[in-house]
Structures are given as structure tokens and as C-alpha cells.
């Protein structure tokens, strides 16, 4: 039986990717809204209630509006906005979070797709907190760089249009108010008692992402080595298809390219350390449109509908 999918907001960056990924599949049928009815609430409501699964690629308020219009109890929802990521009744759509998370997603009718930044941070931090290597009250800091597609259609146009505001800009640091919209889920799903200090940035490349968490190992309440951190991450993600912990090495690469995993659903995790200075840095790399957005949504869709 072919599953009907409605992408509410299919003309945004994430929506377009999901539509393209589903276009050639024979096990799903993408239902689209007519161009002249995109702002027609009655038509949106009709489509939201006639499908097997709705994917919301909308701003937060619009996503909440769409959910409120769904009256058909059989309709499953994946929300790619930040509106429901820590909301009661919603399952966090990171299947590799815990051993039980895949089944929670499979059984749920309401799944909140993770953000690109938070996927990286949580993937690195949660296993180490669960293993007791990093305390819950740890003063976590995080830095990262993303391709400009993470800023949505307006930022894409600003970088790619020769007359755009950022057309000649190579790098932008932002989030200086220390209130990034991904912070609530970063803290919540990492089981931290304090909000991380997070300073993101955007580079002049379309997609790809690197996230770094520096660790002063000497400041931890008990002695922890880089090898132990790596072992805990490796144990947590053993056997996972889409998350890989790269081998521990005493000779780290001279550089890491944020674009290496573009157009994939893969997430790579690294641990680098200096035993002499008792310091380490955790690094995550993925495609911010892939495992960080659209491809993650398709992975969750497959679990929720029992598809490949």
C-alpha cells in the first residue's frame, strides 16, 4: 500500500529536499497543495487530514497552527520546526539517542525532527553524561560552523544572489545573545542541568557542518582520558547505520572539511585529546540538510510508516 505524504511548506529548503528524496520512491505518494492555495487554510486543513503522514517544514507558529488543524487521529506528524522539540507528547526524532529511541519513534504519531546543531551536540554529549564521564552540571561550551543553507531560503538567496546582502561575505558569527533556538533541546536531551554556551557561525559554502565541544579534562570531578571518551561513544553507537565514531588516533588530521558528508544521512563523531595538557575536543560532522534536517525526516518517516 502506498503511503500518502503531505509536506506542509514544501517550497522551503528542507521541504524541497524531502520532496526530491521522495519523488522517485514507489512506496509513497507526495500530495502537494496547488500554488494558488498555499495560504488557503481550508485547503491546508483538508490535505493535512487526508494523508498518512504530514511533514511540517514551517516556522514555529505556522507549525503549531498546522498541528491544531489535524482532526484525523490516524495522521502521523513529523515537525521539522523547533515548536515541539521538548513538548510533552512528542518524541524526539533522533533514533540513535538511546537504545529505546527507534521504537519510540516507530510507535509515535508525533515526532519532532531534531535541529542540525542539536543533533551534533546531543550525539556527542548525551552518551558521555549517561556513562558518568561528564557530570550533569558540567559547564558545556560549543562552537560550530554551518553552510548557509541552514539559514533557510532567505539566507541562501543572500549568499547566492550577486546582489544579496551576504554575496561577498565569507564568514558570519552569530548567536551573541546566547539564546539560540536549539538550546532548549541541546540541554534537555543531553541531560544537562545548565544551558550550554553556544556560539554558531555560517561559512560561504552551501551545506555541511562541524560542531566542536572543548573539554578541560582536568576540571572534571574524576579523571577521564580521551581514550575513555572515545570508548564510551563507540559503545553507544556500535552497530548504528548512520552514526559513526571515527577511530581514535594520536595523529589527528591537519584539518576537517565540513562538506565531506554532503548529500548523505551520515553523522561522524571524533575525539581528539592532548594528555599532557589534559584537554580534549569532541567534534561532530554531518550535512546540515541531511542528518541535520531533510534526510533525518525521511529516516523518521520510514520508521513511523514501516518503510525502507
Distance between the termini: 13 Å
The CATH architecture of the largest domain: 2-Layer Sandwich
Q: Give the fraction of residues assigned to helices.
A: 25-40%
Low-confidence stretches: none
Rg, please?
20 Å
Q: How many strand segments?
A: 13
Question: Can you put this structure into words, describing what you see?
Answer:
This protein is an alpha/beta fold. The protein folds into 2 domains: 3-114 and 293-305, Rossmann fold (3-Layer(aba) Sandwich), CATH 3.40.50.720; 116-288, 2-Layer Sandwich (Dihydrodipicolinate Reductase, domain 2). The chain is 31% helix and 22% strand. The protein is built from 9 helices and 13 strands. The strands form 2 sheets. Strands 8-9-7-10-13-12-11 form a 7-stranded mixed β-sheet. A 6-stranded parallel β-sheet has the order 2-1-3-4-6-5, sandwiched between helices. Strand 3 (53-56), helix 3 (60-69) and strand 4 (76-79) form a beta-alpha-beta unit. Helix 1 (13-23) packs across helix 9, helix 4 (101-107) crosses helix 9 and helix 5 (116-130) packs parallel to helix 7 (183-190). The longest helix is centred in the last third of the chain and has 16 residues, at 290-305. It is globular, with a radius of gyration of 20 Å. The two termini are 13 Å apart. The mean pLDDT is 95.
Question: Brief description of this entry?
Answer:
The chain has helices at 13-23, 41-48, 60-69, 101-107, 116-130, 152-160, 183-190, 226-236, 290-305; strands at residues 3-8, 28-31, 53-56, 76-79, 91-92, 110-112, 141-147, 171-173, 197-203, 209-216, 243-245, 267-274, 279-286. The protein has 308 residues and is α/β, with parallel strands linked by helices.
